[in-house]
Write a structure and sequence with these properties.
six-stranded mixed sheet; 11 helices; globular; 16 strands
Amino acid sequence: MHKLLRQGLVLQFLVLLFGALILPVQARVISDLYEVVEAVPSRGATDRASAGSRGLERVFVRVTGDAAIGNNPNLQPVLQKAQHFIQGYRYTSEDNQLYLHLSFDPQAISRQIHQLGLPMWPNNRPGTLVWLAMDTLKEGRSILREEDAPELFSVLDAMAVERGVPLDFPVMDLNDQHNMPLGDLWAQSEQAAERAGLRYRPDATLMGRLLQASGRRWQADWLLLHGGRSYAFDSNGGSLEEVALRGVNQMANLLAQRYAVRPGVEDTEQDSIFVELSGVDSFADYAEASAYLQGLAQVSSANLLSVEGDRMRLALDTTVGLRSLRDALVLNHKLRAHGDGDAIELNGHRAPLGSAENPLRYRWD
């Protein structure tokens, strides 16, 4: 009895240990946005051209964040000249099916997006942790686990690649089952999502409850939690996979609406947005922080104003407004936001956030 008890304690310890080792679900730079694979009937030039047009449209969906971008009449002539954007291609074969692997030129596509005035979703995308529960006519409610529904999770992974959104799923061990019980998941409890997400530290959390309405109809309610905001939406379809795919697709649309840079749409009341970074203790930190800010799609230039001790102050010329810039900055987990200063001038007025008197303040970790 005592031996079994000791074994049980050891098992609990190992569960907690492995739970602590779970890697955080954080924003990631998506490196394969410009690569697609298309099934083709032959190696002929006509089939390759058709596949190139289809593949290029998929790339534009990923980099603009607009799932319907292919319907844009201004883009149609571009898709017909897809060969001008192809950097390389190769063929593979699997189960008697021929596949064409296409690699498109990021710079050429970026220039085309700018010329057409389309939105541009930078490749630094928020990592999203997905919790799923279903209610079937035969078995009732249960939490969906990857090992129980491999086909469903496989198609969700494919959708994640298609939209360029990094998805992760909980391991659903004893730790997760304790922190996210079925009742809380079905109720889409934000408190449970926060509690259960501590071990994963996701940028966003998506909770879905999928209900079998009849033998051929499914419906789902979704709640996306991100950046202190919540977004509720629904989806329906003829199968479990279809209703789940539509939910993830809508999630991608919502994230793209928040992060895609839209030329001429953002409110730019200030000429520059001022940022102060602390914790810049070495030249390596300075170089890394400067390169990061300069490389943001939302920033056209980053001008260094001063360096004092471990603090550097910059003026950012941006293509977006203040809120969109802050949304982008929070995706870098080396930046830790300080409380807004809300500096008050002698006349009693508050200096605007992001101004020289009241810069955005972050610590570089």
